[in-house]
UniProtKB/TrEMBL annotation:
It is found in: Cell membrane. This is Ionotropic glutamate receptor L-glutamate and glycine-binding domain-containing protein. GO terms for molecular function: ligand-gated monoatomic ion channel activity. It holds the Pfam family Lig_chan-Glu_bd. It comes from Macrostomum lignano. SUPFAM superfamilies: Periplasmic binding protein-like II. It comes from the Eukaryota. GO terms for cellular component: plasma membrane. InterPro entries: Glu/Gly-bd, Insect_Ionotropic_Sensory_Rcpt.
């Protein structure tokens, strides 16, 4: 707010707003719309008259026109106004391939990066020239200096506006420049020989050792037997109470075996032990 100019120069004391309740009509005259405008990111903010209310038509008439369209807010991004951007991009086929390099490090280049730049320039209304870094580097820390080498250092110094290529994000580079959303992501991996294909009947037991299978079997038999005994000798079970709607499944050991197998395999089951409670 300290950089905002005073609004007093726009006070005309000629505007009014009126509303008639009986006929529900709205009337306004001499109403102006002011919008803030910042010419540079850190520059001074001023106010600009952008629209005026027409009481006869009942419309807000824009006073600023950009490409045939009324503009109410000057700070709205409308492209880079055909500005020429200096792009630093080392040669890295197939993303960038130098066709010809001039003595001032400006290059004629082809590749995927050029296609991306051409698309962005048509949408954001800018021109660009591609150059190689003066030292031919990508961007590495320099002892005793806050500036990096290569394209990263040129973006730091303002020699290049943008660096576009397959730049690896390192801690030093992240502290020096700001990275955009990745255009391309690459991963590193190790190559291993293909394991032999084994077609055996008992391959399904391979994921677990013999000890694990034995413990699973013991847990299955012990858990199902314990719950079956509790249900079988429970005097309050529906079967033992002799109720008409009691089910034999309540005291059937087979149902408890299948219930535990379904629980271990996370497949669910039709019967759940309900006499334990």
């Amino acid at each position: 707010m300290e950089r905002l100019l005073s609004i007093s120069s726009y006070v005309t004391e000629r505007g009014f707003v009126a509303y008639s309740a009986p006929d529900r009509s709205f009337n306004a005259s001499g109403l102006d719309l002011l919008a803030s405008r910042t010419r540079r990111l850190e520059g001074r903010t001023d106010l600009k008259l952008t629209a005026r209310f027409d009481s006869t038509e009942g419309l807000l008439v824009p006073l600023q026109v950009d490409e045939g369209r009324g503009l109410l807010f000057p700070n709205t991004f409308r492209g880079l106004k055909n500005r020429t951007l200096v792009i630093c991009s080392p040669e890295y086929p197939p993303f960038t391939k130098y066709q010809h390099e001039h003595p001032n490090s400006t290059v004629h280049v082809s590749g995927m990066i050029v296609e991306v730049l051409s698309f962005l320039s048509s949408r954001m209304k800018f021109r660009y020239s591609v150059k190689n870094s003066f030292d031919g580097q990508w961007g590495a820390p320099v002892a005793g200096s806050r500036f990096l080498t290569g394209c990263v250092g040129e973006v730091q110094r303002g020699i290049a506006d943008i660096g576009v290529n397959i730049f690896t994000q390192t801690s030093a580079r992240i502290q020096a420049v700001q990275f955009s959303v990745p255009l391309f992501e690459d991963v590193s991996s190790a190559l291993l020989p293909m394991p032999p294909i084994e077609e055996k009947l008992w391959n399904f037991v391979g994921p677990f050792s013999a000890q694990v299978w034995i413990l699973l079997l013991v847990a299955l038999l012990f858990g199902s037997s314990l719950t079956w005994l509790i249900a079988y000798f429970n005097p309050f079970s529906l079967w033992n109470l002799g109720l008409n709607y009691a089910l034999i499944d309540e005291v059937s050991y087979k149902e408890y075996i299948w219930s535990f197998i379904g629980s271990l395999l996370q497949q669910g089951q039709d019967f759940y032990p309900f006499a334990i409670s």
